[in-house]
Specification:
By secondary structure, the protein is α+β, with helices and mostly antiparallel strands. Helix content is about 35%, strand content about 20%. The chain contains 6 helices and 10 strands. It comes from Halalkalibacter krulwichiae.
Length: about 220
């Protein structure tokens, strides 16, 4: 097992001083300037970027680029979730970063683009994961195609940073509806590749329709 304190020292000496995370728009992913020697960028979301090091292939480091105070809420979320097969696991943290179990696979968003069939079992796994989160006192928020990974036909939620929020989020419910009435009957058996521009157009149209992004602020 990785020695967390030693790895934290490596993060703070070899990673953090050599990366610049900037947020050009709160609805777009963080932009990363990576000047490290060995650290690799895994991906970016609207609040943070994720990095890996070749010496530790089973873990990733999530570094907050904005609204750093929210990291305390995400830590509490992971502590509530504990060890569950449909979620990552928190190994340690610092002032602006989390050390997490690495989840490999393909997001549902990328699966649609690449023409990779999404099994109904994946959605069943996510539904069970959401029920579990509710049982431990969380509010599964912002569960959508980019935050769900398919790993050997198993569904995993890879971003739980908003599970502390109150209110109702319809994204998962809407994804299920789209899967049932459009994806399953028309795409599942003979899955074509869907152009990125087309999927992004659908995504942005959905955000406007749901009032997530005002029409006059669309990008």
């Amino acid at each position: 097992m990785i020695k967390i304190e030693q790895f934290k020292q490596r993060i703070e000496e070899e990673l953090l001083p050599y990366i610049v995370l900037s947020s050009l728009n709160q609805n777009d992913p963080i932009v990363v300037k990576n000047n490290t020697k060995d650290w690799q960028l895994v991906g970016s979301g609207n609040y943070a970027s994720v990095f890996s090091h070749p010496s530790e292939k089973e873990i990733v480091v999530k570094v907050y680029g904005r609204e750093v105070e929210a990291i305390k809420d995400e830590i509490r979320v992971y502590e509530a979730l504990g060890n569950h097969p449909a979620y990552s696991e928190l190994y340690g943290y610092g002032e602006n970063y989390l050390i997490l179990k690495r989840i490999t696979g393909i997001t549902l968003y990328d699966a649609v683009i690449k023409g990779v069939a999404i099994s109904p079992k994946v959605l069943m796994d996510i539904e069970k994961a959401i029920d579990y989160a509710k049982k431990v006192g969380l509010n599964p928020f912002d569960v959508h195609g980019k935050n769900i990974v398919m790993q050997n036909e198993k569904g995993i939620i890879v971003d739980v940073s908003d599970f502390y929020k109150s209110g109702v989020c319809k994204k998962w419910e809407d994804l299920q509806t789209a899967y049932k009435w459009f994806y399953q009957p028309f795409l599942l058996k003979n899955h074509p590749r869907i152009p990125v521009w087309m999927l992004n157009l659908v995504r942005k149209g959905y955000r406007v329709a749901r009032g997530i992004v005002p029409i006059n602020k669309r990008k």
